[in-house]
Records
---
Amino acid sequence: MAVYTDVSDAELSAFVARYDIGALLSAKGIAEGVENSNFLLQTESGFYILTLYEKRVNEADLPFFIGLMDHLAERGITCPRPVRDREGRALQRLAGRPAAMVTFLSGMSVNRPEAVHCAELGRTLARLHAAGADFSLRRANALSLAGWRPLCEQARDQADSVSPGLRARIADDLAALEAAWPRGLPEGVIHADLFPNNVFFLGERLSGLIDFYFACNDAFAYDLAICLNAWCFEPDGSFNITKGHAMTHAYEEVRPLTEAEVAALPVLARGAGLRFLLTRLVDWLNVPPGALVKPLDPLEYDRKLGFHRHATSAADYGLMR
Amino acid sequence: MAVYTDVSDAELSAFVARYDIGALLSAKGIAEGVENSNFLLQTESGFYILTLYEKRVNEADLPFFIGLMDHLAERGITCPRPVRDREGRALQRLAGRPAAMVTFLSGMSVNRPEAVHCAELGRTLARLHAAGADFSLRRANALSLAGWRPLCEQARDQADSVSPGLRARIADDLAALEAAWPRGLPEGVIHADLFPNNVFFLGERLSGLIDFYFACNDAFAYDLAICLNAWCFEPDGSFNITKGHAMTHAYEEVRPLTEAEVAALPVLARGAGLRFLLTRLVDWLNVPPGALVKPLDPLEYDRKLGFHRHATSAADYGLMR
């Protein structure tokens, strides 16, 4: 839930008047994303989402995110499409913050993905990777291997207060990943945060992707490893190999994985698990007292890492060869 | 801002399936009202607002609120219209809470009302009072004179910590109001909370009223007095008699006030001022540490009471005779 910045209806009306989308008819602050302030706007021409970028988004990255959505939409990936004002600008300022308006996408999040959803996701992820191939801007992944040690150091001293032995488990994970992290895998633009709440379905069909604010350049197979973490575990912490198979098989129908990617999958999955464990742990340890926003449970990823630590091959994830 | 209860998209889809409004296409938690959880739903037939009633709403009052919106809408007052499921029920349960779906209204709130908006509001308020005349349910006003002393006692001991002398000013107001509160004025259904954020405009035309969850039976002129407080003061605390005249004049074009109502206006306005001072003061003194929701400033009403305490006739409010 997130509306961090109050903007009056009068300010919003004046803002919308910069665009050729008709007058503003309605504006509602909406609870979407955890990083930014979002408003659902109704104008005479339809519905739009206005995002005000709060401090966790680096303003210098916005041209990458905005440009990427445009680039992907032009190549048939259904995602929010930046709207340009009469002077051709997509990136604006409002209430002292960077702001952008995008088209509204219908669709519902699936909170308990089934194998059919995992297959849809795998297929779309591969199409996303292909569509991003000729995108000209670059953005490094600040939350890959090199970013994990600083997060680890931030959380280390309090880790055992969250779960006994967590500090040692994280240290072991990090050491193993630093020793085994693959280099030279096929790379390009990845979404890097394609959790179920960022994927819309209408019925069993995937209808759109949102929230590109972690997108960056990194190994394609790492993006797949993030999705295996986010979509294919059951609430009890067990990995559902049927869902893993559905996702990886559908991915490979569009973009076959190289042998190096297949071999790297267990270490990539462990890395993705550690990445979300660490960021959630840091958030968990830094939640202000009395805050209304409940942080996500880091231990969900400690349990998932319990699986990754013992996985030996891509077959453990349902990827058949 | 308010989304207090999380409901998954799957639960919302199942809920919407009870209605004959098409499948759910999108659901967004929205920041509207401060008492309840609200979702903006898009279905195949259009947009709707789903409200989950949180603990500050008394469930026994819901048939009054739901019935009133239906009653008013049938009589041409533009307000959210309760949607009934296939079995004819408007009042439901969802996620353990009472819930109701209503139609979505376009429109924008005016944060700096001008005289033209005050006139529109006055006219619509009188039409609302006329439209409610034959509504069969009743609901007492828990926040009228008899409710103020308990609030006063709750806030008294800490009042001077908010503003020096506030305790004494409140005691004087309450004593004066208990001595002079009018009886026997024309009564009926009043909105009782018609602040600018509960009134929608499209351009300069009033397009709808929302949030009927303080509606009750009480003196019509008291509702007008609430609106004079909420709409006709300037940010510096001064009363704008031009706006007061516009509002009362437009009201009287639809429903002329009786001589008793005119005579009572200053005491009613002071009472309305005290009512919002007291509820805001109690909220202010009870805000949990670290809460994200900022309570409304009680002293805004202390300043408005500074005007009411010295008003001697309806003419001070712009009501000409």
Note: The beta strands of chain B are 24-30, 37-43, 46-52, 91-94, 97-103, 187-190, 199-202, 205-209, 216-219.
---
Amino acid sequence: MFVVEYKDEILVIDGGLKFPEEDMLGIDLVIPDFTYLTDNLSKVQAIVLTHGHEDHIGALPFVLKQVNKPVYGTKLTLGLLEGKLREHGILNSVTLNTVQAISTIKIGKYFTVEFFKVNHSIPDAVGMAITTPAGTIIHTGDFKIDQTPVDGQTTDFSRISEISKRGVLALLADSTNAERPGFTMSEKVVGGTIDEIFRLAKNRIILATFASNVHRIQQVFDSAFKYDRKVCVNGRSMVNVVNIASELGYLNIAKGVLIDLEDIGKYNPEEVVLITTGSQGEPMSALTRMANSDHRKVEIIPGDTVVIAASPIPGNEKLVSKTINNLFKRGADVIYESVSGIHVSGHASKEELKMMINIVKPKYLVPIHGEYKHCIHLAKIGESMGIEKDNIFLPDIGDVIEFSKDKARINGSVQAGYILVDGLGVGDVGNIVLRDRKQLSLDGILVVVVTLQKGTNKIMAGPDIVSRGFVYVRESEELIEESKQVVTKSLDKCRDKNIKEWSQLKIAIRDQLGKSLYEKTRRRPMILPIIMEV
Amino acid sequence: MFVVEYKDEILVIDGGLKFPEEDMLGIDLVIPDFTYLTDNLSKVQAIVLTHGHEDHIGALPFVLKQVNKPVYGTKLTLGLLEGKLREHGILNSVTLNTVQAISTIKIGKYFTVEFFKVNHSIPDAVGMAITTPAGTIIHTGDFKIDQTPVDGQTTDFSRISEISKRGVLALLADSTNAERPGFTMSEKVVGGTIDEIFRLAKNRIILATFASNVHRIQQVFDSAFKYDRKVCVNGRSMVNVVNIASELGYLNIAKGVLIDLEDIGKYNPEEVVLITTGSQGEPMSALTRMANSDHRKVEIIPGDTVVIAASPIPGNEKLVSKTINNLFKRGADVIYESVSGIHVSGHASKEELKMMINIVKPKYLVPIHGEYKHCIHLAKIGESMGIEKDNIFLPDIGDVIEFSKDKARINGSVQAGYILVDGLGVGDVGNIVLRDRKQLSLDGILVVVVTLQKGTNKIMAGPDIVSRGFVYVRESEELIEESKQVVTKSLDKCRDKNIKEWSQLKIAIRDQLGKSLYEKTRRRPMILPIIMEV
């Protein structure tokens, strides 16, 4: 999420989510901390969107509940957003405004937004030029330059050139692939690979890709039509996107090609292709279930060709490998990453970024969207092209880049960062809860319960010890017995010393028992003493 | 670990460990289940080793405690093993026999083992031909074919050819890189890249790589000598390997080059190189500490060149990225994977595997060492070279391949699999404990304690509820209060129905409270009811 502010007006660009890091145990989603928007609610004029990926629109249901301002986006982007807003029950209370990839809109007193078409791994992606009284900012969105795009429309360089001729203050450019030399390959390349797979496959084809990659899905439909196969769509998000994209005209499905999952049994293996979710090895996804043989309706048959038309997103490598291994074990022939041309990126490589910088000729460069290392690489590209080092900004989350007449600088920061979503809870899980989950996950917990007599602290019942996630119960009986003695001794000692405060008793139990367990097991389970009184 | 058995004799090859999978929460190491060896102790003649990597010798301290049989390995392999046995306090009770890379040894009545040199990412790696009355088996160990190895010794194809002329029953070959076309690059390539980095670096160089890659470390020492830099070795395993390798003559360190970490301050930045652990972004390693600015002695200085001469092992990608991002943030110039020639694999690619198969000309092929997908690729290579499909085996862990006069087949399996090591516990953490840790890690725990009157089940104290890893305590007060009421109501209902069994009461509490919490939070914390009696 980016915020452009001029005097009393704020324009918001995108509102994405990220998926939890490995150490965010039990967390479902991570959304931006948008306190700055709720604190400045009256300033916010609108939210403008670049494209419909989760990391650009996924947090909007949460944002719009508190910051209900008009949203502007292209047709498919809004189509995908609508589904989310419906699920959250706020669709009818939000104003959605459809724009064209060549629209120019005026927002508030100060902002003019000129959209321009960019190529990306989802249709209807746009970048935008935001003209303010202080100058024009160009935000590329996520982009690449595809000279042979599936829908025939390339990144709109003539419009970008036209806008840039007026002079551009700052370029905010997608740095995701700034490490990669050369040019990113065209989506058409994947189409060619898919077509070749269709030509050769003798039995069923099962193809997994990102649900939002509508162009790739289109190419699968095209090959299916060409080789006379029926297409069956599988997996919740895949069904959802195929429905929205074909309703809105972004997916062209020949009549009679699409069949129901229930009907695949009616066709011979060589007459069918399944398009499915699960290209990231997600444990609950359709392809993973097939690989584990617990899909309700599809069983992998030896001779199936399974195509994973995607690269693993960083962090998913092992899940994807597991799925591939399991598919091979069930006798499928699996085509994946190791075959070139089965996936291409949606982000610009070095030479494309240079081209963008050359056309825009910005005074200031702000690499965005990548990890820090990617931003650094784009900064280096910028430097190599003559942008002064001082004119390139690598802001942290929340940093404010202030542009004044003759200079720009990082001028402090506003509240920003992550909000963790766990179930229905938004922001109720923080560092303490995560630290506890971490400790619980490593060595489990021992609960020590003891009932004391009021006043005397004489033990009336217990100590009882219950453990979970620590050791096998049947193997730990002796250990538990010894632990009870340790607790009794700690309490006796406290009584001898006339220590009566429960907090003190609990510390004594925790310390003594923790030490004793570590000596015996080299583990540090959480110890939770509970004292009752009668 | 592989077992070769003939009549009443067993020969064991290697005994490695693996690092825990993501779902093995809190586990330190995974070793093979070697019950088959303890069950057949008198049959076991010896353990022969291919090389000194953890995944080939790491489980031996555990194995040798119960299966104390003579070990055969090359000098460096045994040098590395010795350190482990010393830590476990069993060095003096184990017989270690040093072999040469061209040794032939007789083991028991039936086995003749002919070692042969192979190239790998650690010196002194060997493969072996094991001749039994039933024929000869060739086990490649981990290998590649390096035509320009750092130590001048290539994989010993003349010896392999000689042995193979007598006819080879089965080839067990390293499949790790069977997906990769062409040839794996020479380790010398990395030397060239490192040398170029030394030529250009204007300040300190900090280089991280695998501690066991002694050849790569040698090349760093060579470049340091050439460009007049002192070398400082950093990180426990790096110091350990450098000591062992230089003592045993595998690492040639020019006099005066090595300096102490304490003394780096005495030199100018351009006069120093640090070799360090942490190439995998391991949280406690030296490089990660530097990146996080919590290394006790080394602070990253803007202008440092940090070189990560390694690829991330699958599963470590995000840790490595995090380290790189943090190093960039501290102003270092970081050179890593995205630069070609900074790492090469130690495993044979497709063309090398073909060469091995062509020289050995085995009757049977058994792909080993890789994931299943890698084994499948090697199987395909074998098929493409004319080995009959029925003569290629892809056994599961524990499967027995039985070779008889004219055929081979998978003939059942023996007990095998994983044993989890957690602290001092070997095998005391199993599925139930892991399942509990998983649940605890996702949504935490609620402990419900209540003291009942003997006989009447009247509530005498409580219910008290303590939670960890569930929600912030200050935000959950209301929820906890409501939960207590739910518990009291469940217990009242049980008393009304005259249900007195504690197990029943606990089920009632767990069900009612679980339902209530899920409705309110969409989370499923572990609920642990504890009943005391007075």
Note: Chain B has three domains: 2-182+345-426, 187-339, 444-533.
